[in-house]
Design a protein that fits this description.
The chain is an alpha/beta fold. The chain has twelve helices and twelve strands. Helix 1 packs across helix 3 and helix 5 packs across helix 12.
């Protein structure tokens, strides 16, 4: 049987308003009085009604987080950064798996709105016009990670994908490679795939190496696709590079497996560089050279940006670019 706030007040011999102030930590209460109230709460095992309290103060201290795919290797680090920062400031999070599906994303946006989230952090590769329309109709604090809304009304946290890809390919060029293949992600993706492709082209141009369309292929960001494309695109056409830049570590994992099965040695025959620095990358054989995204820092930064919006602070800079790092391991030479 649930205990009422009235019973707590009676045991502590204080007013209901005093118990409410202690529970909400919203006003000064003498330490002696606060101690009596907390003892009464412990004795009665009183559980404040968070929903009722949120209706009164118009805050739930809960943040919605929409992720692209719970199986995506970069998600855990980002969500941990969000959660740690949220917890530090008295917030909890609710995670929703959008699967990059417009209908699911729209549905979750509506659910989070109805559950009175104080704000939403949105991770996705691309935001469609119909999802954007839903976002703008809600008019609540929001931050995007590794993507942005079409009109760029809301703050965004992410790395400079073009510069990161440039650094990776420039490294291979500096090692003497000239026949560098690239497996991109989704061909029409303007958030990650195209910027990384632009970085690839820019590095070739600055090092005076001609761009060869035949060395580029597209698919998605999965290991299965990396594996398939090595077999069905490069090997089938006898297009064997000396190095390969992959738009994600998961692509690189599949590609490395395929090359090794065929009989090519990494890095002696083909150097491979990935992108993301997921937790598996150091443990591959050989360990994967890759561009590291600071996942935890991205999550933490996005939560701080969201808190600024919730508190009504003016956002001075909407595009927060966090630093990337090229991690050199044994998959390249």
């Amino acid at each position: 049987m649930s205990v009422s706030i009235r019973e707590v007040a009676k045991i502590a011999k204080v007013s209901i308003a005093t118990v409410s102030r202690v529970v909400n930590n919203s006003a000064a209460v003498k330490e002696e009085t606060k101690k009596k109230v907390l003892e009464a709460i412990e004795e009665t095992r009183y559980q404040p009604n968070a929903i009722a309290r949120s209706l009164k103060v118009s805050k739930t201290h809960t943040i919605g987080v929409i992720i692209p795919n719970i199986a995506n290797q970069f998600v855990p680090g980002v969500v941990r950064g969000i959660e740690d920062c949220a917890s530090e400031h008295g917030y909890t999070i609710m995670v929703c798996n959008g699967d990059g599906n417009d209908q699911k994303e729209k549905q979750y946006l509506q659910i989070l709105y109805e559950k009175r989230m104080d704000g939403i952090i949105f991770m996705s590769h691309m935001i469609s016009d119909q999802v954007a329309h839903k976002i703008y109709s809600l008019n609540i604090p929001m931050v995007f990670i590794n993507t942005y809304d079409p009109e760029k009304k809301y703050p965004r946290v992410g790395i400079n994908d073009t510069k990161a890809a440039y650094d990776a390919v420039a490294y291979l060029l500096q090692q003497g490679h000239k026949k560098i293949a690239m497996i991109g992600g989704f061909p029409k993706d303007p958030i990650a795939s195209r910027p990384r492709w632009n970085g690839y082209k820019k590095a070739l141009e600055q090092f005076g190496v001609p761009y060869d369309e035949d060395l580029i292929t597209w698919g998605n960001f999965s290991a299965e696709e990396g594996y398939r494309l090595v077999h069905e695109y490069y090997v089938k056409r006898n297009m064997i590079p000396t190095a390969m830049f992959c738009a994600s570590d998961t692509i690189a994992i599949g590609a490395m497996r395929a090359w090794q099965e065929i009989g090519y040695r990494i890095p002696e025959d083909i150097s491979v560089v990935g992108f993301d620095n997921i937790s598996l990358s150091p443990f591959l054989m050989p360990p994967l050279t890759t561009v590291a995204q600071p996942f935890y820092h991205m999550g933490e930064s996005s939560m701080r940006l969201l808190l600024s919006q919730i508190h009504g602070e003016k956002i001075k800079k909407k595009n927060i670019v966090v630093p990337h790092q090229l991690i050199l391991r044994k998959s390249s030479k």
